[in-house]
Amino acid sequence: MDDEYASALNVEENEVFALDVIRPLAKGYRISGAFFDPSILRMERYLEYDDDGEARARYLFTGLTGGACDVLVRMVPAGGGEMVVYRQVTVSVGPPKGWFD
Q1: CA atoms within 13 A on the CB side of 85
Q2: What is the pLDDT of residues 1-52, one digit of tens each?
Q3: Burial environment of residue 71 by CB neighbours within 10 A (0 to 12, 13 to 18, 19 or more)
Q4: Sign of the CA dihedral 8, 11, 13, 16?
Q5: What is the pLDDT at residue 80?
Q6: Structure confidence at residue 1 (pLDDT)
Q7: Confidence (pLDDT) at 22
Q8: Nearest Cα to 32, choosing from 75, 86, 87, 72?
Q9: pLDDT for the residue 4
C-alpha cells in the first residue's frame, strides 16, 4: 500500500491478512488508528517496526463474516490538528472456498 491511496482486497472468512504502510513521519504526521466495521473484521494486532531504516506500520485483521467494508488508516499532524485518511482499503470477505471453487 505504499504508493496507493485506495486499494481493494478479497479475503475468506477466518482468513488473517495484513495491511502494511509506511509511517508518514517524514511528512510531519503520525498514524492515529484505523476505522473499520467490527462486525466484518477483527483487528488482531497493530505494530510499528523499522525495515532497513524505513518506519512502517502493520495492521493484522481477520475476516469474520461475509460482507464488505472500508479500512481507513488515519493520521494526524505531529504537532496536533485535524485527523485525515492516510490510506483506504476496501475489504470484501466471502465464505471459505472449496478445492474446486
Answers
A1: 11
A2: 667 789 999 999 999 999 999 999 888 999 999 999 999 999 999 999 999 9
A3: buried
A4: negative
A5: 87
A6: 62
A7: 92
A8: 75
A9: 76
List the beta strands (DSSP E) in the chain.
Answer: 6-12, 16-22, 29-35, 41-51, 54-63, 67-77, 84-94
The residue count of the chain comes to 101
C-alpha cell at 42: 477483527
Q: Which CB contacts under 8 angstroms, 24+ apart, belong to 82-89?
A: 83/32, 86/21, 86/24, 86/29, 86/31, 87/1, 87/4, 87/5, 87/6, 87/7, 87/19, 87/21, 88/5, 88/6, 88/7, 89/1, 89/6, 89/7, 89/8, 89/9, 89/19
DSSP secondary structure letter of residue 26: G
